[in-house]
Design goal:
mainly beta, Jelly Rolls, four-stranded mixed β-sheet, 10% helix
Length: 141
């Protein structure tokens, strides 16, 4: 089974994309320079808003989750895993982790990339407040 979830967001001048363990997309519209894992703001969805079918499929320990982040022609693909402990309860944030840590904000674990691994070309685009960013989450179980 393959389920796709699309989240639209935008860039922000304070995007750092330097965190080594996670990356985050948030519904918040403000961002300080301390938010070094945040790669997009103004998202249309938080973890709690994701489709029920997506959540159920991602809660399987053998689920494969692919996250594609696109800004115009520049894109990054991240491969991660599902986990039976995912709760998808946070109303504001979507967090992808390299580790196995799970909380209400977590949408995938065991990722092969974090914010610091994104191309600097993409990061430059993510620093533009007018830049539309498309995040596509695909779960296969």
């Amino acid at each position: 089974m393959r389920i796709v979830e699309v989240v639209d967001a935008r860039g922000h001048e304070n995007v750092q994309s330097t965190h080594r363990a996670t990356f985050e997309v948030t519904r918040e519209t403000r961002l300080t320079r301390r938010g070094d894992c945040v790669v997009a703001v103004g998202a249309m969805k938080g973890a709690a808003d994701l489709n029920l079918r997506f959540k159920e499929a991602a809660r399987k320990d053998n689920a494969r989750i692919t996250i594609t982040i696109e800004a115009d022609e520049v894109k990054e693909v991240v491969r991660a895993k599902g986990n039976s402990r995912l709760s998808f309860t946070h109303p504001m944030d979507l967090v992808v982790r390299r580790s196995g840590y799970v909380c209400g904000r977590t949408v995938a674990v065991g990722a092969d990339k974090a914010a610091s691994h994104f191309s600097r070309k993409l990061v430059e685009k993510m620093r533009d407040p007018c830049q539309k960013i498309k995040i596509t989450l695909t779960v296969e179980s």
